[in-house]
Specification:
Layout (H helix, E strand, L loop, with lengths): L2 H10 L6 E7 L5 H12 L4 E3 L8 E8 L6 H5 L3 E9 L1 E3 L8 E4 L7 H9 L3 E5 L8 E2 L2 E2 H6 L9 E14 L2 E8 L5 H11 L4 E11 L2 E2 L4 E2 H5 L3 H4 L4 E2 H4 L3
Parallel strand pairs: 1-14, 3-12
Antiparallel strand pairs: 1-3, 1-15, 2-3, 4-11, 4-12, 5-6, 7-10, 8-9, 10-11, 12-13
């Protein structure tokens, strides 16, 4: 076997760090913060993620390491499961509790039955208007950068599918829910729209991603647990790219 063939074969062999790492993202961290911390802490050459979570949100963040980044489309394309809380009566600039309060209304008259009826309208195929505070780009510029300048532009709706949207608990003005939907769903926009439908406004108060495709937050690691590892022991927590690819 020639040297070039031996080299080519060796290059095709997966690195022990090629794969995915399931992180239980803490609140206030951006997805980029997590990626940067893991990349720098372990001196990985390449780290990405399989779907952004807002700073407010916690839960499953799938990190793609090394050649695991080739799984990006597969990971991002999976259906998502979320659990969270909608806060009725408060509308914000970001559609979640982190934004500037734009309007407040009394929501004390809203019943669980009314909330469930409003939510039921968002099950199935719907067209969703992406929020201005998002990473969607217009002429190469993320919308959130325009929003910071007070600029709002016309946006096109996007098709999404909501498989299920269940009210787990209702304690006015808070609606605790569990949602399963396709990729690209803005849960805070659902909260905003449901609040508007009820005539009192609404925003997302809490959000946790429970699953992405067949990956579950139950198998994810907290940041403290991950950062307590060294280069050797972190490999034990990485799901190999070989195990992720079809046999």
């Amino acid at each position: 076997m020639s040297w070039n063939n031996r080299r080519s074969r060796r290059q095709r062999e997966p690195d022990p760090y090629d794969g995915i790492l399931l992180v239980d993202k803490p609140t206030e961290w951006t997805s980029h913060d997590v990626v940067a911390k893991i990349r720098n802490h372990f001196k990985f050459n390449k780290v990405g993620h399989g779907g952004t979570l807002d700073p407010l949100a916690t839960g499953l963040l799938v990190l793609l390491i090394g050649r695991g980044t080739k799984l990006s489309d597969r990971i991002m394309g999976g259906d998502k499961v979320y659990e969270g809380i909608i806060r009725l009566g408060i509308a914000t600039s970001t559609q979640d509790r982190d934004g500037e309060v734009l309007a407040e209304k009394d929501a004390s008259h809203i019943t669980r039955e009314q909330a469930e009826a409003a939510i039921s309208k968002y099950i199935g195929d719907i067209q969703q208007m992406p929020p201005m505070v998002s990473a969607i780009k217009k002429d190469g510029v993320p919308l959130y950068k325009l929003a910071r300048k007070g600029v709002e532009i016309e946006r096109e709706t996007r098709p999404i599918h909501v498989f299920s949207f269940d009210v787990l608990e209702f304690e006015n003005p808070f609606i605790t829910f569990r949602l399963k939907s396709t990729k690209g769903t803005y849960v805070r926009t659902l909260a905003h729209d449901i609040g508007n439908d009820l005539g009192v406004g609404g925003s997302l108060h809490e959000l946790r991603r429970a699953a992405s495709g067949n990956l579950s937050v139950d198998n994810a690691y907290a940041m403290d647990e991950i950062l307590a590892c060294d280069r050797e022991t972190i490999g034990e927590k990485i799901i190999s790219i070989v195990d992720m690819l079809p046999s």
